[in-house]
């Protein structure tokens, strides 16, 4: 297995100051993965990214928007196109580091498509809310969309994007809503209770691309078992029907039970199970071509570093045993970086990642209703039976 990890400490400059999206979560992820020996495995290559140029960014973003981002990156106070808000405050160097993240994710996807790597990851990426001409949800440039656009440019005919962030992957969906070559699948907390207020099951793709968007809107409080039941009731069926040539996954960790910005109840054990399921699907439906990014996640010490270290382990070889202790060196660094925050001593929460397969009407709860709503809206577009659990 040959896995490319796009990384440079310069990516930590995506720093909005006193803001939930703290780069310490990425720093601690890479430190934990290093201390556990994951980044030193055979077949793992770390590569420093190059900044995406304006022409690359313009494959998904309006040139006028790119110009505004550049202007706001010099210290000018601008409140336009989603910038200058509490969600997206401007900061010096914003354009450069945002373009660097876009370049990292694009290079990851390009390497996998061209066969230079079997899998690749851009852990600082996953900024899925950015719109063609507007910043949103802590995101300036939409690096997953830039990466997918590059794979299409190289000749891909079918790319699947699966988003497991707690927030709807609205920017990526918007950018490819009318493109039948791109299937966007998003599992997220219901838009009735969480930003960005989109991602209803009836959002299924634009004219000529009907069925190209699939949305699973889960009720607040959904736990490991419910989330995994919903995932397996929807995602494998549509991916098998679509037959992607490459699988891109946005792996936001804000589904965590103690995440301060959302209301799902997954443990790191449930998140680990999701990564294993995505790996198996990439192998089955996309010939193993798998590109992953990070995303949201605001339990900066308690969850994100462990969750994404599990992701890095799955991408680079064997999964980490949940009972593995976190190294003392990492615990010391985490305590220094975030004084007063509890530092996990194991790679597990003691969660139970077991789940029961979906059966129509068997568990008439909110998760079951969400599953049925999605299957009813989306499955006919793939020639699948919404009521048949075998599909």
TrEMBL record:
Keywords: Acetoin catabolism. The keyword Disulfide bond does not apply. It holds the Pfam family Hist_deacetyl. Residues 323-358 are annotated as: Disordered. Pathway: Ketone degradation; acetoin degradation. InterPro entries: AcuC (IPR003085), HDACs (IPR000286), His_deacetylse_dom (IPR023801), His_deacetylse_dom_sf (IPR037138), Ureohydrolase_dom_sf (IPR023696). GO terms for biological process: acetoin catabolic process; epigenetic regulation of gene expression. Residues 19-314 form the Histone deacetylase domain. GO terms for molecular function: histone deacetylase activity. Signal peptide: none annotated. Belongs to the histone deacetylase family. PANTHER family: HISTONE DEACETYLASE HDAC1, HISTONE DEACETYLASE HDAC1-RELATED. This is Acetoin utilization protein AcuC. The lineage of its organism: Bacteria, Bacillati, Actinomycetota, Actinomycetes, Micromonosporales. The gene is acuC.
